Amino acid sequence: MTSKLPKVAWIGLGIMGSPMSENLIKAGYEVTGYTLEQEKLDRLAAAGGTAAGSIAEAVRDADVVITMVPASPQVEAIAYGSDGILDNVRSGALLIDMSSITPQTSVELAKAAAAKGIRVLDAPVSGGEAGAVEAVLSIMVGGEQADFDEAKPLFEALGRTVVLCGPHGSGQTVKAANQLIVAVNIQACAEAVVFLEKSGVDLKAALDVLNGGLAGSTVLTRKKDNFLNRDFKPGFRIDLHHKDMGIVTDAARNVGAALPVGAVVAQLVASLRTQGDGGLDHSALLRAVERLSGARV
Description:
Blueprint: E1 8-11, H1 17-26, E2 31-34, H2 38-46, E3 50-51, H3 55-59, E4 64-67, H4 72-79, H5 85-88, E5 94-97, H6 103-114, E6 119-122, E7 125-126, H7 128-134, E8 137-142, H8 145-156, E9 159-166, H9 170-198, H10 203-211, H11 218-229, H12 238-255, H13 260-277, H14 285-293
Parallel strand pairs: 1-2, 1-4, 2-3, 4-5, 5-6, 8-9
Antiparallel strand pairs: 7-8
Helix pairs in contact: 9-11, 9-12, 9-13, 9-14, 10-11, 12-13
């Protein structure tokens, strides 16, 4: 029996893309994937997907193309050119970019795709690796209502909170705001951790009680163990959060919004990268506070 579900091409099988594509396979979608690392293609095939040898091969028969790559340059690289998505996908297909990129890049991609009869949604996500694995991501979408309605069942296989935020680029703008809030929240938690430890308080007990009150947050729930165990294996890398802080500070400047605290945290994230911590999880902001406090790193 052939599936009535749309055929999906998935480009980009990293920390987020791999578990997300697997959740679509579990939901009954036929997924053909392409990424640069062979072991990620092997993982997709083992999960019941089909590995393609190129972008062109992956998207040729697709009804829906989903992209999940690190930043604007990678989105442009896979979308444009003779080997890219726009030149090889059929007219009428739906392209859903779930990467976190600049709102402007999303707007330009939608315009270029429309000229070829291809519809686009920008649909960045929040929730990190755990959210991707558990299919509880928050998905913020920019684009047309009809395209959003068509994509909604697919989004619901990937996340729990799915919202159309406005026209093309709106999803990226909301994602930028999300990354601002997350970075400032992690920074505040990191400062609290160092303060508590230097004060000789039982850190686990303190974080448990703080998380039960107004200071509680999804960030603290998700990152508490990272802080307690100094486990900075990346769920979301500092390098990527640095990119996102660049997006939000630039976009805010363009619209005339002041981000005084965000600007400081953006600098702290940047300093972590220059100290060689770019590959660590963003909870490693704790290391920056420790360095400033003369504590262990």
